[in-house]
Amino acid sequence: MSQVPPDLRFTKQHEWARQEEGRVRVGITDFAQEQLGDVVFLNLPEVGSSVQAGQALGEIESTKSVADIYAPITGTVVEVNTEAADDPAAVNQEPYGRGWLVLIEPDDSGVLDTLLDAAGYQTLLSDEGGEHA
Amino acid sequence: MAVDEALLDSAASGAEPLPAVRFYQWNPPAVSIGRNQTLPSSVAASAAEAGLEIVRRPSGGGAVIHSQDLTYSVVVPESSGVIGTYRFIAEALIHGLSRVGIDAQVVEHGAHGASVSCFALPTGADLEAGGLKICGSAQTRRAGWVLQHGCIPIVDILALARRVFGSGVSDERWTCIGNLNSEVTVDELKRYFTVGFDLLFGGPPERRGLSDDEMRRVETLMSKGRLADPLVVL
Questions:
Q1: Domain segments of chain B as ranges
Q2: pLDDT at B205
Q3: How would you list the strands of the sheet with B64-66, edge to edge?
Q4: B140-180 per-position pLDDT tens digit
Q5: How many other β-carbons are positioned within 10 Å of the β-carbon of residue B81?
Q6: Using the beta-carbon criterion (under 8 Å), do B124 and A64 form an inter-chain contact?
Q7: Chain A residue numbers touching B60 (CB-CB < 8 A)
Q8: A44-65 burial: b if 16+ Cβ within 10 Å, else e
Q9: What is the pLDDT of residue B123?
Q10: How far is B183 from chain A (nearest CA, A)?
Q11: CATH number of B2-201
């Protein structure tokens, strides 16, 4: 059973977002990392680059697939997780912890409200039969 | 490779939101490398000495030698996870192989390792015949669509693989069509795989050429050189 922390917001593409003092930390969900398998490479954006909600901000590669990482919100990347880039297995081991991907300064502070809450994300996983990556 | 990526982009953008299947062989022979793969300089040099071009795939995974193989590319909606999609597409391949007397199945291996060569190690969900890998596959996923590549060796290229990748490549992990049925032709394989995909998609496919937009996308990708872009040689 995939973990869905109650304090996070989620995208339909299986990213999570956490509000932290006006900024938003982003990663992929436990379900997504389970579906991808062993993560071997992260292609993350440069600090200072602009990202657009719903647009790809980078790529994540596992031993068998490459998938886009979608920005949950529009804003500016203020930090990337270089430790995870050096050790991509962190995404598998702690997707909500040291496997986070980017920290974004949002253009709109209320934007997280448009994302799924934990209950909504659980429903999405149920509707998709628990198989969608 | 550029055509495959253009087909994925076309489906993902909604312009041609239909599954697509292609089969092809390589001339000249080549080594395709994963989307984000780096090649050791020794491997790049060995490939060049063997007359193999190096091409970057839009899909992930390791390096694959395309010399007397049959390559497929499939674009399908992302209706299941990574392993689920491998299993889905494998149904068509398993059907095709069964028509030439080859019994194949998807085998999930839990333990992974690291290798430059796709065929050198068991991975998440291998298509195997007689306990040996018969198809190396890789995916990329974009906006709800999946592009999957697969390479099915027709003849035994172990000597070439060892020349390129080194002595670590073992024939104990993979096989080829010729080892299992020396009579079957590539055209027969393509025909039977096509039947398998017909069954998978519930009907015969519409044969079509690339649209104007897809052609432009192919030209853009090729002009950027992204599919054969500079290798980061270690």
A1: 2-201
A2: 73
A3: B53-56, B30-33, B64-66
A4: 999 889 999 999 999 999 899 999 998 777 666 889 999 99
A5: 22
A6: yes
A7: 61-66
A8: bbeeeeebebeebbbbbbbbbb
A9: 59
A10: 32
A11: 3.30.930.10
Q: Flag the least confident range among A36-50, A51-65, B107-121, B166-180.
A: B107-121
**Whole-number Å distance between alpha carbons of B164 and B224:** 27
Task: Please tell me which of the candidates A37, A64, A68 has its beta carbon nearest to residue B142.
Answer: A68
Q: Which of A1-5, A24-28, B56-60, B166-170 has the lowest mean pLDDT?
A: B166-170
Q: Which residue has the tokens 């998609």?
A: B201
Number of neighbours of residue B125 by Cβ within 10 angstroms: 20
Q: Is B118 a catalytic residue?
A: yes
Q: State the pairing for strand pair B53-56/B30-33.
A: parallel
Tokens of B147: 């592009």
Contact B36 A41 (CB under 8 A): yes
Domains and CATH numbers, chain A: 9-108 (2.40.50.100)
Cis before B204? omega within 30: no
Phi, psi angle pair for B220, to nearest 5°: -65, -45
Mean pLDDT along residues A32-48: 93
Distance CA A107, CA A105 (A): 7
Q: Are strands A9-10 and A15-20 parallel, antiparallel or unpaired?
A: antiparallel
Mean pLDDT for each 10-residue chunk of chain B (234 residues)?
94 92 94 90 93 92 92 91 89 96 88 61 76 92 93 93 82 86 94 94 85 92 63 38
d(CA A81, CA A33): 16
> What is each CA distance from B38 to B31, B116, B135, in whole angstroms?
13, 8, 22
| A35 in B contact zone (CB under 8 Å) | yes
Which chain A positions have a beta carbon within 8 Å of B124's beta carbon? 37-38, 62-64
